[in-house]
Every structure is written in structure tokens, then in C-alpha cells.
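Researcher: Please generate the 3D structure of the following complex. Treat every line as part of one assembly.
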Amino acid sequence: MVILVAMPRTAPEPRRLGRPPASDAHDTRQRILDGARAAFAEHGYDATTNKHLAVAAGITTGALYHYFDSKFDIYVAVHADAQERVYSRFTHAVADTTTFIGGIQAVLDAAHEMNTVDPTLAQFLGAVRVDMQRHPELRSALGRHARRRRGFFDELVERGIETGEIDVTDRERAQSLVRAMLIGLNDAVSDDLTAHRLAVEGLKLLLEGKLLKPVD
Amino acid sequence: MVILVAMPRTAPEPRRLGRPPASDAHDTRQRILDGARAAFAEHGYDATTNKHLAVAAGITTGALYHYFDSKFDIYVAVHADAQERVYSRFTHAVADTTTFIGGIQAVLDAAHEMNTVDPTLAQFLGAVRVDMQRHPELRSALGRHARRRRGFFDELVERGIETGEIDVTDRERAQSLVRAMLIGLNDAVSDDLTAHRLAVEGLKLLLEGKLLKPVD
Amino acid sequence: MVILVAMPRTAPEPRRLGRPPASDAHDTRQRILDGARAAFAEHGYDATTNKHLAVAAGITTGALYHYFDSKFDIYVAVHADAQERVYSRFTHAVADTTTFIGGIQAVLDAAHEMNTVDPTLAQFLGAVRVDMQRHPELRSALGRHARRRRGFFDELVERGIETGEIDVTDRERAQSLVRAMLIGLNDAVSDDLTAHRLAVEGLKLLLEGKLLKPVD
Amino acid sequence: MVILVAMPRTAPEPRRLGRPPASDAHDTRQRILDGARAAFAEHGYDATTNKHLAVAAGITTGALYHYFDSKFDIYVAVHADAQERVYSRFTHAVADTTTFIGGIQAVLDAAHEMNTVDPTLAQFLGAVRVDMQRHPELRSALGRHARRRRGFFDELVERGIETGEIDVTDRERAQSLVRAMLIGLNDAVSDDLTAHRLAVEGLKLLLEGKLLKPVD
DNA sequence: AATGAATGAGACTTCATTCAT
DNA sequence: CATGAATGAAGTCTCATTCAT
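Model: Done. Output below.
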């Protein structure tokens, strides 16, 4: 006896021409952005192709251009989106603290938690700096955002000077160091959650003077 | 009857085919490597074209293939070359010190000096990590080198444990932190010599416990 | 119980789906034709996109397909429309004259006046010949119209033979020349009203034998 | 018994990778130009694809870019080539004459002969005016050449004024008319050799006052 | 009757690589 | 050893057309 059953197809049919049923512009746009963040984070601006972006969003390459004028514009939009998410979170975290060390630790904790929830954010923002350096157009398009980022950490140092944690003559040293440390944490270890947690713990100890004991 | 006379050419001919008289294989190979380091550092693996590499070496794209089988191989060779230069220098610098802090400081000083003499080294090594992440082939080809890099810093931490500067229970925290810090210094500020110096000074102060004063 | 109240909208909604209340099919069709004539005249068949046509008609690209099956069909319809306007005007103008020279002058005057009122007509008809040559489909679709055009001028020559202005042995020379002259006037100078007027005046003088004086 | 013979292949093998034997840069470049002239003349700038140009030259689309930076540049190069050929010929032809009418007739004869030998020249130059109107980039790139063209005919009118054939007050009428007539001859009938000859003969008669007899 | 999301084919261009010279 | 002509695959983007709403 043979039983014929309507089998669910294993490979999804290629979509038909024309507007698909149940399509929603806002949804699609967000799918493009989310897929693009992951793709750009993994492959960088150059190596991420149109095809990557389209497949990640479940559409064809042509349809991308219904939402954005160019791959470049997609990158810029992803960046604005990511930057907004991260720094609004950081700003909230820092608002609950009063000291420099407290602020740094709050940022580290927030970064670690965000990285746990969605690692593509950190990966993408780490990749941005490199892509910006490699592509002058990106540099000028994202420059404004980059200044916001820097401003955020400079204000944290300023707070440290006000509280007396940092000597005013060390302002610039502290600014450069903070930038280097946080970028290091992001770029070096954010792709390995355990290493990230360890480095964050190590840095907290170091800041509190508990990591190193002097020997003569 | 035909008379052959050596005619003086009025206009300089474009370079002829065949082996140019003054070429030296070893020289050319090194020119390729040096030019490629700068190019890869600036544009990354993808955006660096064979034309870039050829022009930087003063030859044509076809000639590249006398020295290397592919662009990929050139990248690997540049990496081996750069890695060797940097870590033999670091090894020497560390050999003159006995403590963890002393070793770190010696590495920082060496890094800053190398960066002053030839910034393409630091830039290239910063770019490598990104390119490795973006290209699986590179990851597997350069993995061995990466392990050497990591081993170098892990040994420095080991030394800190032996001298008592670092508690053995903090080993992994220290390892992750050292990696993050040095990568941060390289990636975040090595393109700006002043910022690099400031961050290095800041880090030295921090390690000595002199950057931050606790407030309650 | 449900209370329905006509709510005043605060912000004007983007146009809703469905049939707009104030639309008139015939109007829209003519708007498409008028906009298309100008667009095809300016950019030609290839470079004119459906987006151009839609914007010029104040609708979207999808809506074009309610009125025409394809861009090709729009072109054909524009051509029929333009041809009809021009040649009904020419036919009237010629009807008031009796000689070959009189007919030609009437046509020249009519052409100049139409060009003053709406230059897109002349521009479009000038563009058609080129587009026909470039696209075999257009050639076969518009061939019938082209034969009408040619017939019109051939009849004018025929009249010249009847009146004795043109020797019957010169029939074909005159036909070819008339075609070349009128096309030249249209293509070469119809985009510059002053030049067009000057050329028309010059041609009238030439036909009357007053432009050139023989020298030996 | 089986006899094996080297059979000539009916379909030519696709060319292999790498430099083909017996390849010559200058030859290829000229093949590109010649093929492009015909293609641009037939299909116009827009509808002529890379593939057309490549096939006409017997190479692949990629190889085109070994010789020119863009399709645009190929068009410009074809134009410079065509313009040079035509106007150096015209200049020679006119040099043997002394009157306006003589010059015009010499030009007409030269045009007809060139058109007999290689019709693509006239076709291409006819197409240029249209393409220039449709593409602003072409307009600015070819503007200089266009002015030369116009200058040539204006000088012929100047000569007519000097010889007394044309009244000085008719200068601009004559200029516009000459332009329109020659463009008409080129655009309207140059694709039909017989019609071209007939129109040229008709124009000569008209200029000599022998085509039309006045009736009252 | 109209919108606008989506497809798919194809255009222009770049580039790593190959190979005759 | 070196040049530079050529390929072929792939990438970004455009556009006529289709179709759910």
C-alpha cells in the first residue's frame, strides 16, 4: 500500500515574481539592517557582497535598492543603528554612578552584557574602525558619530578629574589610555565571551590596584 | 648591400621585454614585501589589488607571479616577515628585564620606538587580526604565527606569577587583559604617534598604581 | 456600543492604496502621453525609464501598466499621437496653397509655429527616426506611419511637376532633397528657435533664387 | 581501415586563458575602434553594450578595459577618430575650389564618396548629435570637436560673402541653412546610397537655380 | 484604479590570474 | 626575469515588469 502525503518541501521554492503576500516594508528594512550588521561584522565592508546582504534579508539583490541607494548607504544606516543602541545603553549605565572608576566599571559591565545578548553589535563596531580607515568615504560619512564616541569617554575622564581620582596633568594620558583599553577589550576578546569576561575582571582588579603587587 | 649602424635613439623606448640588466631577484622580492606591507596595512587584504602591489614594487602584475604563486601567498609572506621583526625585537627587549612590569614596560617602549621608525609594521599587524577574522583561509594559514604571539605574552604573565607580582589565581585574567591592552594600544592609537605615547605613559602610571587615586 | 467620529487627521497620510477618488482614466492616459513625449524626446527610447514616465504623469510605475502593456506600447502611442497632430496641421496648411513652392513655404511656416508653441513635438519626431533605426521592433511597429510621412512630401513634389515648377525627370532628385531638407531643418536647428527661423528664411530665399548670386 | 584527418573545427574554440599568440596591441585597439564605430552608429550609445563592443573586436568585455577606461572613453575615442577622418578629407576637398558653391559641391561629392567606401562614418557622426543631446557628459566631452565642425561650414559661408555670392546681410541665414542642409543629407538619406546620390544631385541643381522654375 | 514591494535579467566594471613574447 | 594582452568570474547597480494589497 502506498500512502501519498503532501510532503513539505525541503528546499523552499524560489519566490515568484511580483509583490509577495504578507510583505511589510518596515519588517524587510529591519531584516536588511540586522542581517547586514552581522555580515559587515564578519566580513567587513569590502568582502560583504550584495548577495550576502540580500540572502541574509531573504530577498534578492535588486530589492535591496528599494530600501537603500547603495551598499554604502546600508553600511551607514547599520552604523547609525548600532551606535545608537550601544551609546544609549552606556549613557544609562554611567548615569547610575558617580566616580570615574564606577563609570568605567558600569560601561564594562554593560558592554559584557550586550555582547552576551547580541555579539554582532560589538563585532560590527570593532570592524567599523578598520573599515573607516580603509575607506575615506566611510571616514567622512561616519566622522560625526565617531566624535560622539570619543566625547563620551572624554567626559568620563573629566568626571575623574572632578572627583580627584585623576590628576589634571594626566588628563590626556588618561583619555588616550581609556580609548586604547576599551578598544582593546572590544577588538581583542569580544569574540570569545570567556576571554572577554576574564579581561574585564582583570581590568577591574587593575583599576582597583589589586591585580599587581610591586616587587623590588 | 645592407649597412647596419648603431642608431642613437631619439626618444627613450618603453622598457623592453626580457630580463632587465640590473635586476636582482632577492632585491625585487624584498621590494614586493615592503611595498605590500604598507599596502595591506592601508587598504586591507581585499581592497589591495595586485596592481597596488606591483606598482609599489616597481614591477608589473605579471612579474609578481615569478616570486609568489598568489596574492594570498604574498600576504602570508609579509606576515611572516613582520611577525619575525616585531617579536625578535620584543624578545630582545624583554631579555634585559626580570619582572612582569619591567617586561611590559620594555615591550611598550620597544613598540613605541618601532612605530616611530616604521609605522607600517604596527599598522599591518593591526590589520592582520581583522583580515584573519574575515578570511578563513588566512586564519588557518596564519594560525601558527598567532599562537606564537599569544605564547609570548602568556610567558610574561608566567614570569609575573613567579616573581609574585601576580597571584596565580589571576593568571587567566592577567593573560586576557594583557592581550586586550596591547592590542588596544596598537589598534586604537598607533596611527597617531602622540596619542600612542600618551597612552603608553598612562598605562605605565596605571601599572605602577600612580594614575588613579581612590575616592570613597 | 461603538461611537464613530470623524477624526481630524493631524498629519496628512501618505496616499492610501486603492482607487483615488478624483482620478479620471482618460485624463491620466493623456498625462502619460504628454509626459512621455517630452521624456522620449529628451532622453530617447533607451534612456527613458519607466520611472521617468511615471513621475512625468504623476503616478507610479505600476500604474502605467493599467494603461499600456509595456514601455514599448507607450512609445508607439506617443508616436501615433504626435504624427497625427503634425500631419493634420501640415495637411491643412498645404490645402491653402496651389504651388510646390507655396506648399513648402506653408509647411515651413507651420513647422516653425508648432515648434514655437510646443517644441517637444519636433524634438520627439526627430528622435523617432534615430530610435527607429536603433530598434528593429520600433521600425516594424512605426513603419506604417513613416510611409505616410514620406507620402505627404512626395505628393507635394507631384504637385510641383503638375504645375511645371519641377521637371518630371527631376522627380526623384526633388523627392530625396525635400526629405533631406525638412529632416535637416528639424534635426539640426529645431532646438534653437532663432536658428530655426534663420534657416527657414534662408531656405525660402534659396527656393526663390534670391540667396545665391552666381560668380564666374 | 580508419583514416584520421585533422578536421577544421566549424565552431571556433573559445579562446584560452592568458595572452593569445600573435596578439598585437595596436591592432586590437584599432579593431575595438572600428567595431565600436559601427556598433555605436547602429545602436547608439545607450543600446550599445560592452558585449557588442567586445564581440565586434573579437575579445572579452574585460579586455576592453585594457585599452580604455570606460565605454564612455571608447565613444570619445571613436568620435575623435571619425571627426579627424571626415574633416581632413573635407578640408582637402574644399582647398581645390574657390567659390562658395564650388566648396559646397566639393563637400557633397566628398561626403558621397566617403559614404560609399565606409557608411559607418556618416552613420556614426549622425548618431553623435543625438547622443550628445541625450547625454550631458558626451556634450561636454565632445563640445570642442563640435565647434570645429561648425567653424568649418561658417568659413565656407564667409568665403561666399567675400566672393559676392552671398549678401552680407544673409550671413546668418546662410549659416543656419548650410548646417541644416548638410545635417539633413547625412541623417535623412546617408543610409540609402541611391537616395543620397539623388539628394546631392538635387541640391546641386537647386543651388545653381536649375531645379525650380517659377510659376506665377 | 493605484501603490509599492519584489524579481530577474543584464549592464558596466574590477581584478586575480594565465600565458605568449 | 619581465611585460602586458587577455580571460572569466564576480561585484555593484539599474530597470522593465509582475503582483498582493
